[in-house]
Amino acid sequence: MVPPRPLNKPHVCLCSILIMSSLALMDAYLVEQNHGPRKIGVCITVLAGDACFLIVLRYVAVWAGSEVHTAKRGYAMILWFFYIFILEIKVYFVYQNFKAQDVKVDEEEAEAGLARRVLTLLLSVCMPVVFITLAAIDHMEYVRPYKKKEEIRSRLFWVVVDLLDVLDVQANLWELQRKGLPLWVEGLMFFYCYILLLVLPCVSLSEISMQGVNIVPHRMMLYPILSLATINIITLFIRGGNMLLYSDSRVSGIMMGKNVIAIVVKSCSLAQYGKLRDAPPAGHGVEMHKNCDVQTAAVSVPVPLPVPPQVVIEDFTTIPEEPECETDA
After folding, report:
1. For the chain, N or C: smaller number of CB within 10 Å?
2. Which helix (H) or strand (E) holds 235?
3. Residues near 152 by beta carbon (within 8 Å), at least 6 away in sequence
């Protein structure tokens, strides 16, 4: 399989290293949580799974690296989907192992709490870095204006903040808690965050891809609408329910404040872009005004009628008479 465009080898290597490193860290958690003969079986299983994923990554990463300098991000979306799909499966098993642990000693509880917080830290670093690498905003050479590139960079920053918001909700499930949540609530929260991590970054990448070379930032409104509904509003209710119903003291008040501010900012942006879409273009109005002025001037100034050219035709049909010469008799 040969890519149709020149390959960006540094981008491919960086993506592969980041993805495989994060998966290897999850494998280390899975192997460490098991003891005895079961550890060997888990180690063989995760190594076989990583080998299969590495084969897929070899081709998808090459194609994603070949479209870095273009307006397309199709293979970047596929790579992100596969990456989150595998990573979240590993995180789910790590979470279930944490949940099954019976911690009784204070020192063991402190060590377990540190391991869980380190897991949260690793996810909050690996996922945004992989997403920014796949977006490759600094390699978008087709985006010439600096203002448009900064606009896209600010939108990708909002995606990163939303990723951290979703991870904060998901991390509340495996970090130490005094009172456990109901089983159906835990399952619903985990898989809701799983779907958001799968879909929303792909939506952001697809908006960049659909815009093509002529990127118009105010037309990229699908992701802000989805994130406003699925992250800023629903996660606000999730945190509020955990805090009020289940007395969960680990709910992040900072993220709740972030959601309130994001709701206000995104609502104002949607209203502003709605007015911008309904208003006629400024250049079109100026052209119409100029055309009206030209037509008015043409009507008000009288134009003289063209004078037909006068042609003088001489009569060359008559032959002039020659004078008679006198002869001698």
Report:
1. C
2. helix 234-244
3. 137, 140, 143, 208, 215, 217
